Amino acid sequence: MALNDPKGGKPAKPPSPVPEKRGGWLSRIAPGIRNLVSKRETPDNLWVKDPDTGEMIYRPDLEAALWVTPAGRHMRIAPDLRFAFTFDEGKYDKLPTPKTPDDPLKFSDVKPYPDLLSAARKATGEHDAMTVAVGKIGGIETVVAVMNFAFRGGSLGLAVGEAFIFAAEEAVRRQAPMVVFTASGGARQQEGTLALMQMARTTIAVQFLKDHGLPYIVAMTDPTTAGVLASFAMLGDVHLAEPGALVGFAGRRVIEETIRETLPPGFQTAEFNMERGVVDKVVPRGEMRAVLTSLMTTLMMGRARRSAA
Question: What is the pTM of this model?
């Protein structure tokens, strides 16, 4: 008996049989194996673009080179990597820094300042732009503070000021030298005058270290500028810098527009500043631990002699 059309009329055609799905030979061996094989097994970030040459660098090779490209560019790195490269055997203990108000001035901007801080914390995994840790460098217990440019451009605000002062006080408490790796675009505008006050407060903290005869070494990384350069970055017993790091107060374009002159090639690079006595030594990342060890051994030896006398 034929199936009739619901409206009456010609008999409806029976439904066409559903064609049998035919997979490849892998599907016939084991269901789902085709999907398994077709999945990508390489991570999306396996290759990193060289910012100078545009070439793609195999990430494991870049990691083995301490994030220094074949062209010699010392790429910006997070505090955890900096600590691992600096301390003996990569062993260290992070120290909890003092907490500060997130928005002391109730700053009005396109986006609420607390939201900007929240986004930076989520992206970096750090509370603010400076992280402090303690460990041994060349067998010498050392307090190390690292600035993170990825956190709001490493800007100097209340939290960074408090972290720096805490690091100095911890160094005095442990009778240990202090090393700071700087990376900053300047004071944090959302904290206004309170941010500028940290320049004076960190200067007093450096003097506190010197009053106790403890070495204070600055290692400038790309970039070290503005308020940070004008305060604790320029007060070290020794000033080191990574190759090619930008070290200066104002930007090249601003200076050229102000003085109406063309600045020389390499202006404000670490090498340019070393030739003029602003930086004592340009140190490749792979040699930094050895240089710090040598410096602190000498400086702590001198301190021990003064104490004995």
Answer: 0.83
* Domains recognised in the chain with CATH numbers: 43-73 (no CATH), 76-308 (3.90.226.10)
Q: Report the alpha-carbon distance of residue 225 to residue 246 in Å, rounded.
A: 8
Contact residues for 297 (Cβ-Cβ < 8 A; gap 6+): 138, 140
Structure tokens at 67: 């994030």
Q: pLDDT per residue over 246-286, tens digit each?
A: 999 988 888 888 889 888 888 989 999 999 999 999 999 99
Structure tokens at 204: 């007093």
Segment holding 204, helix H or strand E: helix 192-211
Under 8 Å between Cβ of 198 and 161: yes
Contact (CB, 8 A) for 293 and 137 = yes
How many whole angstroms separate alpha carbon 166 and alpha carbon 144? 11
Q: Could you tell me where the beta strands, DSSP code E, fall in the chain?
A: 47-49, 56-58, 92-95, 130-137, 140-147, 178-184, 216-225, 238-241, 247-248, 281-282
